[in-house]
């Protein structure tokens, strides 16, 4: 496991993508195929079925170190990572690195745990822990508990392997799709030469819009721009090539299997078509909430009921390939002209073109934008009519002109310690609003504060804790913050009666008292 | 919280009624007893202050001439009011002391900050038996178990050498007094200049004045930096991170020497390139050992994880309490 431990320590020590890539390449170049296969499997975030309950792990470590369980919990809360915490608490031996390879560790120590009873598991683990040094123990625990994040995901692993195999990154991405089987043969297959299958499934890099950071008038004459609604779904590319359907999300994940209805209707497309668009849960007239769409996306193989309850629609923005020809260099105006007849011929109601909004002036567009919420969209998209389809978030030809977020003043009610970089700091907050004279929790928010402010709030929380429920602290309702969020919906699942999207902290309002915080009833009136 | 006439926890800090003196008071007081010369223990503008003889030159540097300062040799008891006071090595930094207060055969010991491991620079910790022990608990969780400082020293030298090979300057962040001097012996054996930030440099001389053997150092003045710092080791306080001063040292690698570096999340959050686990505080096993060695029947906990430590010892049958409700963690060493 030596090489793998060294790799992980290197990955952990740097924040530079470049250095991480180098470390990955070094490792994959020299590792045995069988070890590399397992390393890749874990780096991509996979883990075998849970082998031991984490509750038991804590109890065993507490017992062995003669520590009360609450102190183990307290330490976990501070360290912010269970694998690391348990590795640190195990009696320290000054051992050299264990000679076992990663493959041996996983296949002869880890996986057989599944067949052991509790007592055997405990004995085996104790013996392994004692043989390892602290770093090895930490990594071994990571292999058991999962959540193996080293600042490397599938995408970076794929890049490293692609460079070693001298293949394009999307080809490697494609080969790593689905269930990667962690054995030497599968690993070697990743390095095979590019096949026709690889090229059929390969998407184009997505072209992304930047947030509009100026007055739209500064973009020039409105006639030079195409305006559309900014739909709030999942950006995706749909490929129909050689009788195969592929659907790629913007995260470069293949999600075609989850949307069988789109596959069916894609068969009506001419061969060699690539569409750029937005996946939306659609109730026939308008998009359903993003939460509904999430439910769909989270199902790898959706059943009949969910297919019926949450139908999806592919809102088409752009045509990237027609008849197998790459159209990205054409102006948007022309791509759109060629898109219309293709969609026109398509039956069913699973595809829809994202309509362009007609306006004579920026003021008219601004007026349209002000109705975004009623349309259940996030605002407007502005695209230059003569723009080619670029890649990444580059250039000045595509802009998102989002509607201003909702804002409320809310009161900090609960806090929990963060994980990873925020370990040991209270950074996960629950905020409340007034309802009938009572502060009700209504949103959780984690982001928006600077490091300095995080420390300030952390100190506040420690000084004003009223009660502790395990890792959660209830604080005196005193600190007011301004929150922004996007979607706002009535919800029966939440005690407050509302569900919000993307809540984040705008600023701390030292100038406001809790009594001045907002009321849920008032907020509900804003739900359209 | 009170222990007879020996010691009392008051709103303003620790006070000994028998001696009519405050211990490590941050507010100006008539009579101050000082464990060591770090700012949060030293206070300012006291009328009179007592500390160990070895601490006195360091404390004088920070307190200025207005405070009437008495340096007392380690182990030498003197009378103050109804109490006998003496200072005993705490092993934290040069001159750091535990303060022993005795009244009618009863003994209180205030540890200040302390560590058990020897660093070759500060006077080694001495066990002082007592009835009530006031212990720091900065790192009072069982995940804190210090590695052998010699091994961290090896890592530190290897890091310096590897930066030299890449033509980069090594910047080691360390508290200006104590840590900055304590790391110096660990750097011996690598060819290359050691530059001290202006805040740490004067203390190097004060250490040498007391006979502490340290490798040669230079002051990191603007002119010296202009001459080129590739391959050099620069020791600077953590506050230089993200300042223009640090940018002048580029290309450089940044590392922190602190016990906090033992936790991965903290290391990552702080954004250093590397971390060396070098602490001047007790770790968990040392804390347990020291409480046991002291033979105390009552334990007052302060700093860091006072709550969990007090609860742990209460469950072990000791009368243990938290000294101050103020629970600021992650304070820098």
Provide the fold topology.
The complex is a heterodimer of chains A (528) and B (333).
Chain A: H1 2-13, H2 17-30, H3 33-43, H4 54-64, H5 69-79, H6 82-89, H7 102-110, H8 118-131, H9 134-145, H10 154-165, H11 169-175, H12 184-189, H13 196-200, E1 210-211, E2 225-229, E3 234-241, E4 244-249, H14 260-266, E5 273-281, H15 290-297, H16 304-309, E6 312-322, E7 325-326, H17 332-344, E8 351-353, H18 362-369, E9 379-384, E10 398-402, E11 406-417, E12 426-435, E13 438-445, H19 451-463, E14 465-469, E15 472-475, E16 480-485, E17 488-490, E18 498-500, E19 504-508, H20 520-525
Parallel strand pairs in A: 1-10, 6-8
Antiparallel strand pairs in A: 2-9, 3-4, 3-5, 5-6, 6-7, 9-10, 11-12, 11-15, 11-16, 12-13, 14-15, 16-19, 17-18
Chain B: E1 2-3, E2 7-10, E3 13-16, E4 21-23, E5 31-33, H1 39-42, E6 48-52, H2 56-63, E7 68-72, E8 78-80, E9 83-89, E10 97-103, E11 106-110, E12 132-136, H3 149-165, E13 169-173, H4 179-182, E14 194-196, H5 201-209, E15 218-219, H6 222-226, E16 233-236, H7 244-247, E17 252-257, H8 264-270, E18 274-276, H9 284-294, E19 298-302, H10 306-315, E20 319-322
Parallel strand pairs in B: 4-5, 5-6, 6-7, 11-12, 12-19, 13-16, 13-17, 14-15, 14-16, 17-18, 19-20
Antiparallel strand pairs in B: 1-2, 2-3, 3-4, 8-9, 9-10, 10-11
Could you explain the architecture of this structure?
The complex is a heterodimer of chains A (528) and B (333). Chain A has helices at residues 2-13, 17-30, 33-43, 54-64, 69-79, 82-89, 102-110, 118-131, 134-145, 154-165, 169-175, 184-189, 196-200, 260-266, 290-297, 304-309, 332-344, 362-369, 451-463, 520-525; strands spanning 210-211, 225-229, 234-241, 244-249, 273-281, 312-322, 325-326, 351-353, 379-384, 398-402, 406-417, 426-435, 438-445, 465-469, 472-475, 480-485, 488-490, 498-500, 504-508. Chain A has 528 residues and is an alpha+beta fold. In chain A, a hairpin with a 2-residue loop joins strand 3 (234-241) and strand 4 (244-249). The termini of chain A are far apart. With 333 residues, chain B is an alpha/beta fold. Chain B folds into 2 domains: 2-143 and 280-322, Metallo-beta-lactamase, Chain A (4-Layer Sandwich); 149-276, 3-Layer(aba) Sandwich (Rossmann fold). Chain B contains 10 helices and 20 strands. Chain B starts with a strand and ends in an 11-residue tail after the last strand. Chain A binds chain B through residues 12-15, 65, 67-68, 70-72, 74-75, 78-81, 84-85, 88-89, 92, 94, 419-425, 451, 455, 459, 462-463, and chain B through 141-143, 145, 148, 262-266, 268-269, 271, 273-274, 305, 308, 311-312, 315, 325-330.
């Amino acid at each position: 496991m030596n090489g793998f431990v060294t790799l992980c320590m290197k990955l952990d020590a740097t924040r530079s993508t470049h250095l991480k890539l180098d470390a990955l390449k070094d490792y994959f170049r020299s590792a045995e195929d069988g070890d590399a296969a397992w390393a890749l499997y874990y780096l991509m975030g996979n883990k075998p079925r849970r082998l031991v309950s984490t509750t038991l792990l804590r109890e065993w470590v507490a017992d062995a170190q003669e520590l009360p369980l609450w102190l183990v919990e307290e330490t976990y809360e501070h360290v912010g990572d269970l694998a690391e915490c348990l590795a640190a608490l195990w009696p320290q031996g000054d051992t050299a690195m264990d000679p076992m390879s990663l493959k041996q560790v996983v296949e002869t120590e880890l996986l057989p745990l599944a067949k052991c009873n509790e007592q055997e598991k405990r004995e085996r683990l104790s013996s392994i822990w004692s043989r390892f040094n602290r770093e090895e123990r930490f990594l071994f625990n990571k292999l058991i508990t999962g959540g193996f994040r080293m600042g490397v995901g599938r995408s970076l692993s794929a890049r490293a392997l692609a460079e070693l195999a001298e293949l394009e990154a999307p080809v490697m991405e494609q080969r790593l799709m689905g269930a990667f089987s962690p054995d030497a043969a599968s690993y070697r297959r990743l390095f095979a030469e590019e096949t026709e299958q690889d090229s059929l499934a390969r998407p184009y890099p997505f072209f992304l819009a930047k947030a509009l950071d100026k007055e739209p008038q500064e973009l020039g004459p409105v006639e030079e721009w195409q305006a559309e609604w900014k739909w709030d779904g999942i950006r995706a590319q749909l490929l129909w090539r050689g009788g195969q359907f592929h659907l790629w999300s913007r995260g470069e994940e293949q999600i075609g299997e989850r949307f069988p209805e789109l596959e069916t209707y894609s068969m009506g497309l001419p061969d060699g078509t690539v569409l750029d668009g937005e996946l939306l849960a659609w109730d026939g007239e308008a998009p359903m909430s993003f939460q509904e769409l999430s439910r769909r996306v989270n199902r790898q193989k959706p059943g009949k009921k969910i297919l019926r309850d949450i139908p999806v629609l592919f809102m088409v923005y752009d045509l990237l390939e027609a008849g197998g020809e790459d159209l990205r260099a054409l102006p948007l105006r022309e791509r759109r002209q060629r898109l219309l007849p293709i969609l026109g011929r398509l039956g069913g109601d699973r595809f829809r073109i994202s309509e362009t909004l007609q306006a004579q002036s920026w003021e008219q567009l601004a007026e349209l934008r002000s109705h975004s919420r009623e349309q259940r969209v996030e605002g407007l998209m502005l695209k230059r009519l003569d723009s080619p389809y670029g890649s990444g978030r580059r250039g000045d030809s595509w802009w998102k002109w989002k509607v201003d977020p909702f804002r409320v003043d809310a009161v900090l009610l609960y806090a929990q310690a963060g994980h990873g970089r925020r370990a040991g700091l209270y950074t996960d907050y629950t905020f409340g609003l007034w309802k009938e004279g009572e502060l009700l929790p209504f949103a959780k928010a984690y982001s928006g504060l600077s490091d300095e402010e995080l420390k300030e709030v952390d100190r506040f929380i420690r000084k004003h804790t009223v009660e502790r429920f395990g890792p959660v602290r209830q604080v005196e309702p005193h600190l007011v913050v301004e929150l922004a969020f996007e979607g706002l919906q009535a919800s029966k699942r939440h005690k407050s009666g509302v569900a919000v999207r993307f809540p984040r902290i705008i600023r701390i309002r030292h100038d406001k008292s809790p009594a001045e915080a907002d009321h849920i009833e008032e907020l509900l009136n804003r739900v359209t | 919280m009170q222990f007879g006439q020996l010691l009392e926890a008051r709103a303003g800090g620790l006070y000994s009624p028998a001696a009519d003196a405050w211990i490590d008071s941050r507010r100006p007081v008539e009579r101050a007893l000082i464990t060591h010369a770090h700012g949060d223990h030293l206070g300012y503008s006291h009328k009179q202050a007592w500390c160990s003889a070895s601490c006195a030159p360091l404390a004088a540097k920070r307190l200025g001439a207005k405070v009437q300062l008495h340096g007392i040799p380690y182990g030498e008891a003197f009378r103050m009011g109804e109490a006998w006071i003496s200072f005993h090595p705490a092993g934290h930094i040069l001159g750091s002391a535990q303060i022993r207060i005795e009244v009618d055969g009863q003994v209180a010991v205030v540890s200040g900050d302390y560590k058990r491991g020897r660093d070759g620079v500060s006077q080694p910790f001495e066990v002082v038996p007592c009835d009530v022990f006031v212990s720091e608990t900065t790192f009072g969780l069982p995940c804190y178990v210090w590695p052998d400082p010699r091994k961290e020293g090896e890592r530190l030298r290897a890091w310096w050498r590897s930066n030299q090979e890449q033509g980069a300057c090594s910047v080691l962040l360390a508290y200006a007094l104590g840590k900055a001097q304590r790391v110096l012996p660990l750097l011996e054996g690598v060819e290359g200049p050691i530059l001290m930030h202006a805040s740490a440099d004067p203390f190097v001389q004060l250490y040498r004045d007391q006979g502490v053997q340290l490798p040669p150092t230079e002051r990191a003045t603007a002119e010296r930096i202009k001459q080129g710092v590739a391959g050099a080791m620069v020791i600077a306080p953590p506050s230089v991170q993200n300042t223009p001063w640090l940018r002048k040292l580029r290309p450089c690698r940044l590392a922190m020497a602190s016990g906090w570096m033992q936790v991965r999340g903290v290391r990552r959050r702080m954004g250093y390139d590397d971390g060396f686990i070098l602490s001047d505080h007790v770790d968990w096993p040392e804390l347990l050992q020291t409480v046991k060695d002291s033979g105390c029947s009552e334990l007052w906990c302060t700093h860091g994880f006072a709550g969990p430590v007090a609860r742990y010892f209460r469950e072990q049958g000791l009368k243990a309490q938290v000294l101050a409700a103020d629970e600021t963690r992650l304070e820098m060493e």
